[in-house]
Amino acid sequence: MTKKVLLRYSAEKVKEPILASIIKETDTLLNILHAEFSAEGGEILLAIDAPDAEVNRVIKLFEQKGIETKELKRAIQLDEEKCFDCGACISLCPTGALRLTDDYSIELDEDKCIYCEICVPSCPVRALKVSKF
Amino acid sequence: MTKTKVNKSIAEINDRIKRGDAVVVTAEEMVEIVRERGEVEAAKEVDVVTTGTFGAMCSSGAWLNFGHADPPIKMQRVWLNDVEAYTGVAAVDVYIGATQLSETRGFEYGGGHVIEDLVRGKEIEVRAIAYGTDCYPRKELEISVTKDDLNQAVLSNPRNAYQRYVAATNSRDETIYTYMGTLLPNYGNVTYSGSGALSPLHNDPNYETIGVGTRIFLGGAQGYIFWEGTQHAPTKAMGTIMTIGNLKEMDARYIRGATIEKYGTSLYVGLGIPIPIINERVAKTTGISDEDIMTNLTDYGVPRRERPILKEVTYAELKSGEVEVEGKEVPVSPLSSLKQAREIAGILKKWIEDKKFFLAQTVEGLSTDQVFKPIKHITAAPVAKDLMTREVVTAKPSDSITSAAKIFAKRNFDHLPIVDEKGKLVGIVTSWDIAVAVGTGKRKLSEILTPKAIVASENEPIDAIARKLETHRISGVPVVGTKGELRGILTSEDLSKLIGRRRK
After folding, report:
1. Which of A:83-122 have CB within 8 Å of B?
2. What are the CA-CA distances from residue A37 to residues A12, A42, A45, A113 (Å)?
3. Same domain flag for B141 and B259
4. Which of A19-33, B77-91, B125-139 bottoms out in mean pLDDT, i.e. has the lowest?
């Protein structure tokens, strides 16, 4: 299963090519879902599709290089009791994490979610929730 | 009407239902039957076609009667869970409308939610005030009730089940929030409503079988059509119906309060109409498919009554999840639940097969030529060019901050539009920008101008511009022509003058 890891960079660390060096070193494919930087540092949200041991190794390397890491777990939830499959959310989702199936049910693929939260207020019955860990 | 080969009466069809040998299919199933066998054979074979829709229907509400207190009260104003209900009728009758907002929770809770909570059997806080009369001396009342405590709770909706609706998109470079949902900038998405081939009124657009007295599926119970709906426009394939049913018998799966982001509250209503196949003409109209139903893709970025139409699209295209707008494929959201529309058509079919639902003979037809007129306007609403200042002092990007500061000092204004050699607007500088520039040692206007200024067009209504000023918290907008050339400037001061003029 894909794991999502949030990296927090301090202002000094931003200057180093840490992500590139870890990709080179581990040969693991790291997918950047979201990135945001300012004068005070920044954040990168990674999706890592690899065996657990591999993921843990990547996380450890980031920490050794002074990057704060946090594994994000099940952060978006679709309350299927509340949802009545209207589809208001699907055209707003930038990654296709929310989609309509052939029988017009809403399906949420959490691996694709980048937590942009555009869908959350668009739901007429508040069936979508993003919880932060 | 021309003579038909197949002629069945409602009584005959009801007899078949009673005997358990009526043939009932959903409108989706009927598409194939008519396509394969033709309308005459389909009319011989099929007795009833069931339809369904589950969408936001703002023109919905419920009549409630509380019974009398002792001493009695003539309720003058009433709130249900802080949502005000209409009381301009007798002492203890109220109408709770779907879009009325809670006075404490705003968009998060409204009349639609009160109605859903009543259906769910939840307790509702009732607060009433009155002026007091000799016969109704009580002036205040606070109680909590459930639907079981009420004498009547009747869902009574002035406009339901639009035959079809326009599809919406947005040309502006900002996200807008409309009753058609959230519309992303630059045609970033499309939304639509209605169930296409399953649409109740699209299956009998000539109103041969649908009329006053038609028994329907309404919110999970059996309800009725009691008139044409408000804004009924059958000649434009935009027919509507008024519906009524016992709220106490309804199921909250098919009656849901809803919040439309930054727009308001509404009520999702589940509705299905059985179409008796009395002849091949009706069989043919129930054979309509998503490919046959067209609607206009409309630009909601233009806040006018007549919104620009970009193109025609079919419900088949809309249901596919993507439509082409200005050369790119754009994702589509259905705002009504196609899954539940299909479910409702299925339930109605089952009710009829199980002899729990019989067709009603209509007592009156619905209009087939009614036209939906716009409001009677007394004066034309003013537009930007009626109020804007045409002689605008401008500057060039290469001008110095000092020269601009002098202009501001000499003249009493706050906005300096910056134009290029051809008179095209390239940005705006405010007196505040100048103050900051002086403080931070900037030299040229090009360093400080706001390049993506909020602008208005010459024919933009003043009300739309007032909203722009308010939402962007700005005090003026340059008015530009179609090629971006500066034509004038309009400030909040100009708008205040207008109000002064209106009051005279």
Report:
1. 84-93, 99-100, 103-105, 118, 121-122
2. 12, 4, 12, 20
3. no
4. A19-33
